[in-house]
Amino acid sequence: MPILILFQGIGSSILGPTIISMEIVLDTTTKVIALAFTSSAVGLLIGAAICGISYDRVNKELFFLVSGFLLSAALATAPFFPHVYGFIGIMALKDVCSGLILSGM
Prior knowledge:
Strand content: under 5%
Largest sheet: none
Number of domains: 1
Radius of gyration: 14 Å
Structural class: mainly alpha
Distance between the termini: 9 Å
Order of helices and strands: HHHHHH
Helix content: over 70%
């Protein structure tokens, strides 16, 4: 469980400081890259809803293991997406996993 808290700390703070750099790397506008914040909020909402529905029906250790693995994979691959909408999608996936972990704790 403590390693999941470490994932949460790293994952929740990555978007804010890197948003300007990702805007330059992805060659997009501030208006478009700001959709990453919206997709993150929607992803967190979806993750919490999925957790609420499925938490009692699945193996808890496997639930957290898969969520933590997907969270770390999303964080590792996010800077390498060549298109801005891929980056926005991976930020949404990251926060779906965050919602699963936070709601399950």
